[in-house]
Amino acid sequence: MAVLNALSILPACPPKSTRLSTLFTLGFVMAFSTGLANVSLKYNSVGFYQMSKIAVTPSIVLAEFLLYNKRVSFSKVLALTVVSFGVAVATVTDLQFHLFGACVALAWIIPSAVNKILWSSLQQQENWTALALMWKTTPITLFFLVALIPWLDPPGALSFNWNFNNTLAILLSAILGFLLQWSGALALGATSAVTHVVLGQFKTCVILLGNYYLFSSNPGKTSISGAFTAIAGMSIYTYLNLKQQSSKAPRLASSLPKSKLSKENGSIHEGNFGSESV
């Protein structure tokens, strides 16, 4: 990010001022979302971790309703239910968990949901770009991640063997992590928090089916059926979103000439009024 800023590649922040508390909250929840997710994977099985990820979808729907009074249609709720059920059948093969890990997984759900909601709303409502928002929130996130290191990392993490291969692998991982964060932020700005979760679940199903068809991996008929069920629910959810957008387009097109004409009439009226007063 610093290199991009030095090369003047980073886009400028929007002229509309965003409250510092909002940016601080976004950086805070980003740090805890990342840290708690890694700890959850450490103490729980992959199946339990996937189950906690599925719980993010209803959390986002509830949070957006409470914060923005945003409602989801009944047909979309049914489609999301099919998606969640299919992903659960496809990925949740074991539910082994540690008591501490279960508490961490539950604590991770809320920061993860708030993180996605803020990323989406700031870009869509306040005209932030993904890179500009990352530039403003990354220092806050790094501060909290450094503060979490003594609590989340095992003892002896600072005595890591920094040889050439390890350093190169960490730098490559950091670059890939940046690209992953950037692509996720772009998706959140272009769609919504719920759609971003569905997109991630689609990726999971594609990986599972790709391993089965390309590399002869055998996850079992139950997992394959769950993946196809989830993709069917995703297709319905996508169709409902596209139908909603197409129904909104004629309304915007019909209201645009009226508003434009009213502005022109208003400006002409103001101009005539001013000439009379002079």
TrEMBL record:
The chain crosses the membrane at residues 20-41, 47-67, 74-93, 99-119, 131-152, 164-182, 194-215, 221-242. Residues 251-278 are annotated as: Disordered. SUPFAM superfamilies: Multidrug resistance efflux transporter EmrE. InterPro entries: EmrE-like, Sugar_P_trans_dom, TPT_transporter. Its main location: membrane. The keyword Transmembrane helix applies. Residues 18-237 form the Sugar phosphate transporter domain. It holds the Pfam family TPT. It is found in: Membrane. Keywords: Membrane, Transmembrane, Transmembrane helix. One of its GO terms (cellular component) is membrane. This is Sugar phosphate transporter domain-containing protein. It comes from Prunus persica.
